[in-house]
């Protein structure tokens, strides 16, 4: 789990566009495609069933599938980064399951006014499940010896999208102002700035701070829809979470700038193996 400039690998962006490109084994491409299709079928069927049970319009399953389409695109990116493994792996299956959960939650965005208090509780508990599973995929990858750049990027990207979905729900549900979207947009904005200022593309050392703050962001956003959490409490909690996030980005940006002063900033555009910092 990482929400902030990526640590431990050379891809400092939600899409990992600066990750090294490798040829994916044929079996791996088939495995990724099969899992992507299975995830889509699961999302669609569960969304239809939930929508019918809750009396929601077809907008709900359609939006859920739209959210899953984003995850499907992320699944297809940089598959070669999973080489030499030729199968999707249990760790990535957990990450994919989290994507299905996030998609089902995202489907509620246009129908929030149709949800009962019980449904809002269920959505928050589902987000809690996605959060709880966020540490399992990495552990599984190490346990099964299938850790890869692809898996790291996938986990990071899914966190970014989940954060955006929860931020939109908090805003559309009337619990927090539109400014809460900054939590979901912080990382994409950081990446966009990196396109202009290459020094921000360098690798950062591992930071437990980023992991903890990521948990805080998701935890705050997932409790906002709960009926018992009302303004101004929801706004104060979200503001505190955003403040922590901005502080974390500021610390990392300052480190990158200071570190970049010791080398040629233009080298970050071509180098994919940046030296690690103890």
TrEMBL record:
InterPro entries: CDP-OH_P_trans (IPR000462), CDP-OH_PTrfase_TM_dom (IPR043130), CDP_ALCOHOL_P_TRANSF_CS (IPR048254). Keywords: Membrane, Transferase, Transmembrane, Transmembrane helix. It comes from the Bacteria. The keyword Iron does not apply. One of its GO terms (cellular component) is membrane. The chain crosses the membrane at residues 28-51, 58-79, 119-141, 178-200, 212-229, 235-257. The keyword Cytoplasm does not apply. Pfam families: CDP-OH_P_transf. Residues 1-21 are annotated as: Disordered. One of its GO terms (molecular function) is phosphotransferase activity, for other substituted phosphate groups. GO terms for biological process: phospholipid biosynthetic process. Belongs to the CDP-alcohol phosphatidyltransferase class-I family. This is Membrane protein.
